[in-house]
Amino acid sequence: MKRRTFLTTGLAASLLPDHQAIPQGNTQAKRAIRIAHITDIHIGPGNRSAQGFAKALQFINSLSDKPELILNGGDCILNALETDKADVKAQWQLWHSVLRQENNIPVMSAIGNHDVFGWFMPNDTLKNDPLYGKKWALDELGMSERYYSFDRQGWHFIVLDSIYQTPNPADPELGLAGRLDDQQMRWLANDLANTTRPTCILSHIPILSACYQFFRFETRAGNQIPASLLTHTDSLELKNLFKQHSQIKLCISGHLHMQEELTYLSIKYLCNGSIAGRRWIGPFQEFEPIVTIIDLYEDGRTQHYWYDYTKAPR
Ligand SMILES: [Zn+2]
Fold first, then answer.
1. For residue 64, is pLDDT > 50?
2. How much is the pLDDT for 314?
């Protein structure tokens, strides 16, 4: 695990040392695209989240060398899993009002577990609601599918849906696992077979992680939270699939609100902290709220920068 936090001491724009962004020995490589990754925003009325999200977007949008694309890793809102409709509506309204006001960069999104509506409501009270489950979040985020891919500036981007329902009436909080459903796994294999472009994969839940071992809390029923909620449980299958596709360079995620950088079989796995920190009251464990800026190069190399945007001047 490696932590790099850049404290802002001057103009935000001067903090991205472009001339240093090309790794040593890579002086011929040309940058293809600069992206920003935001994740785990958890916006909702009644706390500092709207101001905080605004500040994160102001930071990204004020960079003179501005990202062309924002990848949003999900958990956009505070919580929809067991929240009544009016509250969830207010959370999404706040999400849109801050984005409208503070951002003019295109955003591509993934779904987070807290964006899912009604799964943890007792007795399935919302099950027949047309917005139940992922439908509401898909509508709000302008997503026509739960998972998809696209090409931009020579790179291939894959956005996964990590959120898998495993009904457990005894303890609804255990009713969730990080994994792809079978249909999505087949789609992913096919998608990867059809591109040779350097590829970046976005998921809400980390596919591979070490720092999840430091994340523990008890559920309402007194269970220690299981790994199935913290990382992908199908990481072995994904590793075996990824092995066949050397074009995969980078996998980015959030969910843990912790930062880590792992390289395994030549693929870099970044867990890029959170915008919210510990539910907007400070750092989560050792990790301040951050935004991540990533440069993707034509030759498939990548370089990321983690910024504590809360300390940006403004
Ligand atoms: Zn999450």
1. yes
2. 52
CA of 54 to the centre of ligand 1 (A): 20
Specify the pLDDT at position 175. 82
Indicate the range of 30-34, 145-149, 164-168, 236-240 predicted with least confidence. Answer: 164-168
* Ligand 1 centre distance from Cα of residue 249 (Å): 23
Measuring CA to CA, which residue among 137, 146, 38 is closest to residue 88?
137
Please tell me the distance between residue 254's alpha carbon and the centre of ligand 1 in angstroms. 7
Residue 305 CB neighbour total at 10 angstroms: 18
pLDDT value, residue 2:
37
Q: What distance in angstroms lies between residue 255's CA and the mean position of ligand 1's atoms?
A: 4
DSSP state of 155: E
Supply the pLDDT for residue 172.
Answer: 62
Contact 51, 97 (CB under 8 A): no
User: Which amino acid appears at position 177 of this protein?
Assistant: A
Classified as helix, coil or strand, 250 is strand
Q: Phi first, then psi: give them for residue 102, nearest 5 degrees.
A: -115, -5
CATH 3.30.70.100 fits 32-311, yes or no: no
Residue 47 to residue 280: CA distance in whole angstroms = 7
Q: Report domain extents, the chain.
A: 32-311
**Residue type at position 130:** P
**Cα of 40 from ligand 1 centre, angstroms:** 7
- Identify the band that residue 222 occupies on the pLDDT scale cut at 50, 70 and 90: confident
Torsion angle (degrees, nearest 10) of CA 277, 283, 286, 291:
40
Q: What is the mean pLDDT of the chain?
A: 89
> DSSP alpha helices (H): ranges in the chain?
49-62, 85-102, 135-140, 182-193, 227-230, 235-242
CA angle 2/271/194 to nearest 5° reads 125
Residue pair 248/261 in contact (Cβ under 8 Å)? The answer is: no
